[in-house]
Design a protein that fits this description.
The complex is a heterodimer of chains A (153) and B (711). Chain A starts with a strand and ends with a helix. Chain A has helices spanning 20-28, 72-75, 82-89, 99-112, 118-125, 135-150; strands at 2-5, 8-11, 46-49, 52-55, 68-70. Chain A has six helices and five strands, in the order E-E-H-E-E-E-H-H-H-H-H. By secondary structure, chain A is an alpha+beta fold. The relative contact order of chain B is 0.11. Chain B is an alpha+beta fold and 711 residues long. In chain B, helix 10 runs parallel beside helix 11 and helix 16 packs parallel to helix 20 (684-696). In chain B, the strands form eight sheets. A seven-stranded mixed β-sheet of chain B has the order 9-10-7-17-14-15-16. Chain B has 20 helices and 28 strands. The radius of gyration of chain B is 27 Å and the shape is globular. Classes of the chains: A alpha+beta (153), B alpha+beta (711). At the A-B interface, helix 1, helix 3, helix 4, helix 5 and helix 6 of A face helix 5, helix 7 and helix 19 of B.
Chain lengths: 153, 711
């Protein structure tokens, strides 16, 4: 079937019931989107469909249709997205495995709420587990990204 | 984990590497009569473009070791920090952990064990670069100055990159001197991580991400603990498109397929029956049995004075039981291991903490010698101890599957496989009896611990179990400063065996000993109607470092000032892995729901190499400890684990994460250096329990906390 992934339409040769996560990783070869739980509990596999965050591990390929898929590889070529810059500035990552999903959820949050409160952040990010417990710096980085987006120091 | 430190220098001293090349299969390092300097070339490459690549002998699993060890080299090398990058070392005896004698990341030892070696490597390389420059300019080395990646002498100037080739041809120095700590300009400076760029762009490669043409994926159905494969019906599995083979490992059945999804669907279609294990565990029943056992004295680990007499005579006696469950580590990256076998050569990609052990285990399984096993370490998506198994469980199994399947194969665990697959923090029961004098101070302490030994039945049993005592079962207890003060104290241990595989889990024995001791001390303080801080300080009068850390945490937390309405504070202090951490938790309770608003932590780790990384590790340990305090519990019924994924084995999420304030005690380079990856995990559960007691007068003696279950 045809999928639009990070701006490019491509033929993906995979069964319709295969979750988008495994099509991205094992068929397309985009491994930045991570497998953590397989049941939409941890958020490591978060990607965007038409800009909205979804858990790719429970999204069958057949349900994607013409919606545009954006993965961590698609938000910037070089880590220059404001959320990524904020992540670097706040020194968020530890093992890093969940961070693609954290960043994708944060990008969507800031689109919906350009100036989120701590409570907004906690509510939007509660589906993304980080076993290293980088949560304090995730909050800091989202506030920082919000300022970067708005050009506020 | 606590391991023998006799291995010091045995793995570090070797002058076997020349030029910019480290053989993957370096032969076992010969014992040196005179310790030599570590081979700089094995740990450092300087490129013609002035790039400085530091080869990291320890696994980066989030703790920041890629940055910390690079800082040590850079401090002495005087290079340009912006040109520094890190990479993982291959498996080789030259990279053995200097405190252990084999290549392993654990026990919070990475920085401590490498503090001399990596600085020495930096100083060695600087010495060689200076001599190369001096020879080029025909001046005395003493007339050359190295700074920021450039050597100068008068009007002469050369970058490290332009000198590296000549420098590496020079004989290494036989002795170097290291900088006086007062001249450090990198060590002690908050430094951002070197692995951020690839980790925020999805480019970082974890074991899970290994892909190459011809690589297949295996998903395994594993036997219940202690069971073996009896009968397999793989007819339905083999009909799944993409499934190629089904192989039996003896303790599991592996479905080998073109991709994970096909392998997983194939695995779900298997019909397997298992042999009956000798013992079928039921964790609730086990706890009942162990509570009875805890009423009897175990194998003594520590027996000072006449404990029974003192307890018999005491007018006031404290007597309580504590209980903690089995816990899975649940690192975010489920376990996996990719293996390619070609004749007698084995190539492995595994996010492992134990390259040395895994290399040997892989050789045994493949029927080859360790020097034929190449082991690559990609990033680890969390470790917490699970990726360092004395039995090399997940690596051995993956090698066997690749061997049986006859194709290169990556064995991938699902989250369910991870939660149900064993290698848990063991469950424990403690019984504590304390004799108390008329001022409310303890005079005798009798402590019985019941729980499985981590080392028993593994290759580590020989050196980790001494006189029937696995030190990890009682660490933090037998060496507690509170007990040392008492004229009579006894610590004894029962180590029952079960088929449940158990393992070290971030901060290991301290996960339960700190909880118990600091809860008991708090109880005693309240019973004596004393302030819990003052009570502890009185007991710690001979331990100035503990006292200072405790006071610092208390002061930063506002101890003694009223907390916000409806909140209360509790504190705890604990030493482990050479560092002392005190934490103050501020909590509120609504119904039976516990909310932790803030944790204020102070740490004394001797020398703080990277304060930014230390702050991150304290935040991380606190989150990890809170997962266990508030949520973590595995239930074993009829030999099988009930929980399976994050919906029924919850871990801490962002909305539960408190504000964290970290205070690092001023550097004391004369003080013994401590580890940082684990110690702050231990005090968080008792700090929360003590805050809950202050608020509700309910004493929680079981983890995870259940306010509905106590009155």
């Amino acid at each position: 079937m045809k999928l639009e992934i990070n701006g490019t339409v491509q033929e993906v040769d995979a069964p319709a019931d295969m979750p988008l996560l495994w099509a991205l990783r094992d068929v397309v070869g985009l491994v930045g989107t991570k497998f953590g739980c397989g049941m939409a509990q941890c958020g490591a596999c978060t990607v965007h469909l038409d800009g909205k965050p979804v858990r790719a591990c429970v999204t069958p390929l057949s349900s994607v249709g013409t919606r545009k898929v954006t993965t961590i590889e698609g938000i910037s070529k070089d880590g220059s997205h404001p959320v990524q810059r904020a992540w670097a500035e706040a020194d968020v990552v530890q093992c890093g495995y969940c961070q693609s999903g954290q960043i994708m959820t944060a990008v969507a949050l800031l689109k919906a709420k350009p100036e989120p409160t701590d409570a907004d952040i906690d509510s939007a990010m509660a589906g993304n587990i980080c076993r290293c417990g980088t949560y304090v710096r995730v909050r800091e980085a989202i506030h920082l990204a919000s300022r970067l987006n708005r050009g506020v120091k | 984990m606590t391991l023998s430190r006799r291995g010091f220098l045995s793995g570090a001293a070797a002058g076997l590497v020349v030029a910019f090349y480290v053989p993957n299969m370096a032969k076992a390092v010969p014992k040196q009569a005179v310790p030599q300097l570590p081979p700089a070339n094995a740990f450092l490459r300087i490129g013609p473009d002035d790039s400085v690549t530091v080869v990291i002998a320890h696994s980066e699993m989030g703790q920041g070791i890629w940055t910390g060890l690079a800082m040590l080299i850079a401090e002495e090398l005087e290079c340009d920090w912006t040109k520094v990058r890190s990479e993982h070392a291959p498996a080789s005896p030259v990279y053995a952990n200097p405190l252990m004698g084999f290549q392993l990341t654990g026990g919070s030892t990475s920085t401590i064990s490498e503090f001399e070696r990596y600085r020495t490597v930096g100083a060695t390389a600087k010495d060689m670069l200076i001599r190369a420059a001096a020879a080029k300019w025909k001046v005395a080395p003493a007339k050359c100055k190295a700074a920021n990646g450039v050597i100068t002498s008068g009007s002469n100037r050369a970058t490290y990159g332009s000198l590296a080739e000549a420098a590496m041809k020079l004989p290494p120095p036989t002795k170097v001197s290291l900088k006086d700590p007062k001249n450090w300009n990198i060590i002690g400076k908050p430094t951002k991580r070197l692995d951020t760029p690839e980790k925020i762009t999805g480019k970082a490669q974890y074991g899970m991400d290994i892909q190459f043409p011809g690589l297949r994926t295996a998903v395994v159905m594993r036997a219940p603990f202690g069971g073996k494969v009896a009968k397999v019906d793989d007819s339905a599995a083999l009909k799944i498109p993409g499934v190629e083979k089904v192989v039996s490992t003896g303790t599991g059945v592996a479905v080998v397929a073109k991709n994970y999804w096909a392998a997983k669907v194939g695995r779900d279609a298997l019909v397997v029956s298992w042999t009956k294990p000798d013992m079928i565990v039921d964790s609730d029943r086990l706890m009942v049995e162990w509570r009875e056992k805890a009423k009897t004295v175990g194998t003594p680990a520590h027996d000072v004075g006449k404990v029974e007499d003192a307890l018999g005579k005491a007018k006031t006696k404290f007597d309580a039981m504590f209980e903690v469950p089995y816990l899975a580590h649940a690192p975010m990256e489920p376990l996996n291991c990719a293996v390619k076998i070609d004749g007698d050569k084995v190539e492995i990609w595994a996010g492992t903490q134990a390259q040395g052990l895994d290399q040997m285990a892989a050789a045994r399984v493949a029927g080859t010698s360790p020097d034929k096993v190449t082991l690559h370490t990609p990033f680890l998506g969390g470790g917490f101890g699970r990726r360092a198994t004395p039995t090399s469980d997940f690596v051995s199994e993956a090698v066997l599957i690749a061997k049986l399947a006859g194709v290169p194969c990556k064995t991938v665990w699902s989250r369910e496989d991870d939660i149900r697959g064993g290698y848990y923090r063991p469950a424990y029961v403690h019984r504590v009896q304390v004799a108390v004098d008329d001022k409310g101070m303890p005079t005798a302490w009798d402590h019985v611990v019941v729980g499985q030994s981590i080392a028993a039945g593994t290759p580590f049993e020989g050196f980790m179990v001494k006189n029937g005592i696995d030190g990890t079962s009682i660490e933090g207890l037998n060496d507690s400063p509170y007990l040392a003060k008492l004229p009579a104290h006894r610590v004894s241990l029962h180590s029952p065996r079960t088929p449940i595989p158990v393992l070290w889990w971030r901060s290991v024995g301290n996960t339960h000993t700190a909880f118990v001791i600091e809860s008991v001390i708090d109880d005693l303080a309240h019973a004596a109607k004393q302030d819990p801080l003052a009570y502890r300080l009185a007991l710690l009068d001979k331990h100035p470092r503990h006292a200072a850390v405790l006071k610092a945490a208390a002061e930063k937390a506002g101890w003694g000032k009223p907390p916000p309405a409806g909140h209360a504070r509790g504190l705890a202090v604990h030493e482990c892995f050479g560092s002392i951490v005190a934490e103050v938790a501020e909590v509120s309770v609504t119904g039976n729901k516990i909310k932790v608003h803030q944790v204020t932590a102070a740490v004394d780790c001797g020398t703080a190499v990277n304060p930014l990384g230390i702050e991150a590790q304290l935040q991380s340990c606190i989150a990890f400890g809170m997962s266990a305090a508030l949520h973590g519990k595995l239930t074993i019924k009829n030999g099988e684990v009930v929980e399976s994924n994050f919906h029924d084995y919850p871990v801490l999420r962002i909305h539960e994460m408190p504000k964290v304030v970290v205070h690092i005690m001023p550097n004391d380079s004369k003080a013994r250096m401590g580890g940082i990856g684990e110690p702050a995990t231990a005090p968080v559960a008792p700090a929360i329990a003590n805050a809950i007691f202050a608020l509700t007068k309910k004493r929680l003696r079981k983890l995870p906390f259940d306010l509905g279950g106590v009155s």
